[in-house]
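Hi there,

I know you've been waiting on this one. I reran it after we fixed the sequence typo, so this is the corrected version. Both the input and the resulting structure follow.
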Amino acid sequence: SCAMLRATVKLCCGIAHDHLRRLPGKHCSPPRRPREKQAEKRVLKEMLRGFTLLCLAPAAACLEPARDVSPSQFSSVDLFYITQGETALQRALSILQQHTSWQAETMLDAVAAVSSAALPGLGKVFRAEAVLAVPVARLHRELFEGIEQMPQWNPTLSQVKVLQRIGTDTLVTHEVTAPSPGNLVGQRDFVNVQHRGRRETAIYLVGTATHVEPLPLQEGCIRAESRLSCIVLQPLAGDPGRTHFTWLLSMDLKASAAGWIPTSIINRVLPQSQADFIKHLCRHLSATACP
């Protein structure tokens, strides 16, 4: 059986135990507020969804055992974040293993090849691919360990803040895009779970929107949601000093203050944002390369 599945079963049991322990009874505390009930429903729904996805995942999709999913050392909310991360990871693996018909996107910059496909439950998913002239470990440091420093080299972001670290592989982050003249979409912010997984020589960095105790809305920003983001860092065959970079992205940008955003604009903005991100990353890597 899959070690990841076993870990997630333990995780789900931990969540369930914590919530069952607090169910109303003879000596219960005053009734919970509607907001608390809604939060618990989301926790249990995500737990069940993650458990189902992992049960249906093929054995080949199993990752290395999670090092930070011992239910006894985390709160139910912490475990919820980890479950969200693991669920997003399995979903991304499933997409990567499918024989999907990806359609090439026309890009302004050839720094990356971007394609797209319409997938059930996610809508349009964009896939960007590039070969970067640095090893996996360097990219891993930049994109996960040093996530708060991203705005220093990516001008499309004004802030990335780690709100919480759960174990070694899960973060809760708040990201704010930078205002830009002529931006067709406008300024957005995101509250995400970021999660790291490993499989053989590859590192998977996944992100998805979280709904537990979100930050207040930022003035001038619209709270958008990342349905799924997954960056795969794989050493290039025969050249471990270079990395094959793959990025899956599906996002709900939400309506702007001016109203609904046409799908045609979203389908231009998202793949271009992927290409721009990779371009800025390449410049940063070149500027900070070891002599």
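Quick highlight: The chain has six helices and ten strands.

Best,
R. S.
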